[in-house]
Amino acid sequence: MNVRRHHISAAALAAVTALGLGTLTACSSDSAAAGNTDKFDVVASFYPMAFLAEQIGGEHVNVTSLTEPGQEPHDLEISAKQTAQLQESDAALYLKGLQPSVDEAIGQSGIKTKIDAATLTSLEEHGAEVGGHAEEHADEHADEHAEEHADEHAHEDEHGHEHSHETEGGKDPHIWLDPVKYAEVAEGVGKAFEKADPDHAADYKKNTEALVGKLNDLDTTFETGLKDRKTDVFITTHAAFGYLAERYGLTEEAISGLDPESEPSGARVKELAKTAKADGVTTVFYETLVSDKTAKTLAGDAGLKTDVLDPIEGITDTSRGDDYFQVMEANLKALQTALGAK
């Protein structure tokens, strides 16, 4: 256990136990950085969680990421060293449902402060096709999307697609790719920080408000940037962009399901080629952490281009930006080009 626990007040310790906090210092994977520092130590499951903790915690926190840059988060298997890191830290910040080995390790660990981002917003079931189901969102501008794209859902029936959530989908964990949902998570983490570490509550509140403001601005930028477009449909290798599609009235057609390593059927590939022609699709998107072979095969057969749409599960030297906001802006530019947005 972190030795600093012997130096915090009983009230602070009780708050920490009840809610918990998160932290980050450049997502170190060194076990020495995981605990026993002079700051509040947290283990984050992967980049989007670590980024939240860094932005909200600022100078008061220290974070270690279980997922190294360039590592596919879905494939992570917790090591004995990382299990020890969990035991030495004050808190764990994770997203249940994305990384089964992380869920299990945190569940079995003795760490008292566990923040599950999935409990701070609503998760939905997404299959290989996700349309702009704006009615599922209570926020105001989602309702506007519902009116603007009222006929969009007919797309499913027109092409005779099947939507078996039992086989293709399930609860989609990729909430950070929707700026509005990511802001909801940020607010929840910020409140947990304030209650768990009241000495720095004012700073956590200020940092959370600043981050939520930036995420709201990003939401507006996406909405404005995607308004005048030639098509609503985009094709990806990995069904990571369902929430983003719903938020902005788009339709994501994924070659594979929520698992980026799953192999698509020949029938699915042929179906997507027909969809591309019918809906004016120009581009097949792939991501940097997974092979682009399937995307290039489909694109070649259908006479389409390929480009990167980054699910931002980690930042590497090949990422189109140094942090979440920069890569999201790069994603917007890629979508604008592919969808023919003016």
TrEMBL record:
GO terms (BP aspect): metal ion transport
Pfam families for the chain: ZnuA (PF01297)
Gene3D superfamilies: Nitrogenase molybdenum iron protein domain (3.40.50.1980)
Position of the signal peptide: 1-28
Keyword Kinase part of the UniProt annotation: no
Similarity remark: Belongs to the bacterial solute-binding protein 9 family.
Protein name: Zinc transport system substrate-binding protein
Lineage: Bacteria, Bacillati, Actinomycetota, Actinomycetes, Kitasatosporales
